[in-house]
Amino acid sequence: xxxxxxxxxxxxxxxxxxxxxxxxRYYISMGVLGFSLLPIYISAVGSxxxxxxxxxxxxxxxxxxxETLCSLITKRSVGYFGIGAWLLFPLMVPPGLxxxxxxxxxxxxxxxxxxxFGGFGxxxxxxxxxxxxxxxxxxxxxxxxxFIKPFSNxxxxxxxxxxxxxxxxxxxxxxxxxxxxxxxxxLAGPHVGLIFEIxxxxxxxxxxxxxxxxDVNYRTxxxxxxxxxxxxxxxxxxxxxxxxxxIQAVLGGGVLFYCFFIFSDRWTSxxxxxxxxxxxxxxxxxxxxxxxxxxxTEGIMFAALINYSFSPMYDELVMYLKNLKRVxx
Length: 329
Fold this sequence. Notes:
Largest sheet: 2 strands, antiparallel
Oligomer: single chain
């Protein structure tokens, strides 16, 4: 559901609907996103090698080429490039994954998740999330064997292309097995996992900055992190050994990154306040259920996919209840 006019927003109870008529607002928001991600990229390059910087450059190049070609072929354009996905995707893959595999899958995700729906602004699924899932499903073996240990010296990566210390023991698997670390070490890292998992405190600080200044959907992230923490706390008490305690659950894996940078996306969010809060609550529930009762130790990307599928239903339900309440009066 796309509501681009203020009068319709008020009547339907929608919030922060994307404005296709004001590109400056969008590009300012993307500038804030780039500024927020800068500390994450700097720390990733220093800990893993300048391959991460090359991955970012190739991701932006693939985005420009793919979206331009698709726009020319389909002869449809809304005047925007999907810059957010270009900046986020390089952080959402294992650092040891071959560059060609990451970029080719990202290009395919832009075609399937964005261009086939009419271009940026009309897509239902975040292309970066779709690209991550595309790699996980089609290149599962390579995905699960491409994790590498960060350098002990956080500046050493600026001098080498990439770390070669491959491992399949991620920090999230370590926490899921019931192990723990001192809080300072869990928060400060470095962790083994996807690129955005290395230093949780940097993601936390950068995410808060983006949430405050980025002109984004803040309702879903707040509802998500609050619900996730509460359910993890109760679940760990009721089902110890099955549900991870809240600190390990939040600081391990992609919870912080998805919370601040994926669930805050206005273009793929529900359109009503109630719908966005519902999306956050259900995303937290789905993530914990998948992590606790399936063979997948992460699960949050599947929770995001479920939300993308049912967000219109959340909005329909919220507006139905509002109208029902109005009629009853």
